[in-house]
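Take a sample.
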Amino acid sequence: MRKRKLARNVSAILGLLVIGFLLLTNSKNRTSSATARVLKIYDGDTYLVEWNGKKEHLRLIGIDTPESKQNRKAKRDAARSGEDISFIVDEGKRATEFVKSILKVGEQIGLEFDIQRRDRYGRLLAYVYLPDGRMLNEVIIRSGYANLMTIPPNVKYAERFRKAYKFAREHKLGLWGQ
């Protein structure tokens, strides 16, 4: 009798743990640390938002989209990759257009922070949640419009992003489809 009762209790506890785990790992059910309003989309991974009553530059954590304008970083990326700078900029424009197709100026977005809240340029660092609950960072990677950029200590979703990146490359999505 005691063994059956113990088995039922253990089974119930395990069931609750599984349900809790599923709720925590489902990004649609994840609660954001804050909300912001999108004011401008600069490129695929950098935006101007209104957060806590102030205008803030926001940079997505864990991803790097190509530059959409000729600048020092675009020149470095071209030299590193062996690609022409105009190719890099064209790819950056494609990534920006993809983001603009799913993120709209004026929308409310959810923000989730990791260990560091700002980068060395003073930009806010966040995982961004779209109104439908999807994580924008992951959507961009999985659709093939970003490279991984893991910078410790902000590594909360590094493995999740790695899997999304692998999926996009294997399926030749976005920038990888050429």
User: Anything to note?
Assistant: DSSP finds five helices and seven strands in the chain.
